[in-house]
Amino acid sequence: MHTPDEAANDAKTPPPANPPQPAPLHPDRLTWLVLLARWTDFARSAVALPTDADGRRMRDSIADIITLQAVWFALQHLQELDPAEQALGLARAGVLIEKHEAAIRHRWASVPKGIEELIGDAKRQLAAVTSENEPQMNTDEHR
User: Fold this and answer.
1) Contact of 90 with 129, CB cutoff 8 Å
2) What number of CA atoms fall less than 13 Å from residue 92's CA on the CB side?
3) 119 vs 30, 74, 137, CA distance in Å?
4) Do the beta carbons of residue 42 and residue 62 sit within 8 Å?
5) Does residue 113 contact residue 64 with C-beta atoms inside 8 Å?
């Protein structure tokens, strides 16, 4: 236990000249880890889904849902690719969105709201990234 004089001296002691710095946070990794944890939990929860028709449809849709979410996320980082790879990434994203949306719509007469929103998010992200890349892709085509 400190005496009042010792406490006063501690308060006057300057901080170290070079205090240790915490390791930097990497938002891209943090985001990926959060996303991965979220979808891992979602996939694990599938075993608890009811065995009725809706539960089976949801269980059968898990891979499609996770893929759509992954495409949405990847599209946000498309600019990190070499320009030559961006067009290929956009094409693949379009194919994946079409494929997994079709599989979901085939299973569900009325797609649940959350899944419908995910499909819309993926399509909007693809449209936004495509429009951002069109001027560059047109320039690359004329070289």
Assistant:
1) yes
2) 12
3) 24, 14, 25
4) yes
5) no
| CA dist., res. 101 & res. 22, Å (int) | 43
Q: Where are the domains of the chain?
A: 52-143
Pairwise CA distance, residues 37 & 21, whole Å:
27
Residue bearing tokens 């693809």: 126
Give the predicted TM-score (pTM) of the model: 0.67
Distance in angstroms (rounded) separating the CA atoms of residues 26 and 96: 28
For 71-114, the pLDDT digits (tens) are 998 898 888 888 878 888 899 999 999 999 999 999 999 999 99
Per the structure block, which two tokens stand in for 56? Answer: 């089976």
